[in-house]
Amino acid sequence: MATNAELPLVDISSPDSAAAAKSIRQACVDHGFFYLVNHGIEESFFRQVFKESSKFFSLPLDEKMKLGYKNHRGYTPMFSETLDPASEVKGDLKEGFYIGPAKFSDSQVDANQWPSDEVLPCWRATMEPYYEKMLKLERCINPWHLYDFCTIQVEILRLLTMMGD
């Protein structure tokens, strides 16, 4: 398994999208992960996202469970998801928080679950723009534009923390 230093960097600033796609493919085949560079999103914004994410995952379990997973959004506790049920007895060593499009299906109600401003005053103000920036970035690097064939927006962003982080 690759360490942080060994993960490939994929530069998406080049107008040669075929080269970027080839680099992404090779990184996924060789490592399973990669870093995108020159994507235009400021490092200070990522620091804010990590800060808010850390605050959320540091909350007591009962506070996080108020936002328990429903409608493909919200909090999933440690061991509640299993990547490989055939080989895992206890579940994955991670907690997660799922964020999706503000409007889901024909509903005018935001399906996302947000911590109250009293608990995490900057959470929603950070995570909504983060979701939008990641969606824009995905559409920039996805040359197939498969989302053009969808009648509803379905992209889900997962924030994760692993045991020991």
From TrEMBL:
One of its GO terms (molecular function) is oxidoreductase activity. It holds the Pfam family DIOX_N. InterPro entries: DIOX_N (IPR026992), IPNS-like_sf (IPR027443). Residues 7-116 form the Non-haem dioxygenase N-terminal domain. Keywords: Iron, Metal-binding, Oxidoreductase. The keyword Oxidoreductase applies. This is Non-haem dioxygenase N-terminal domain-containing protein. It comes from Dioscorea zingiberensis.
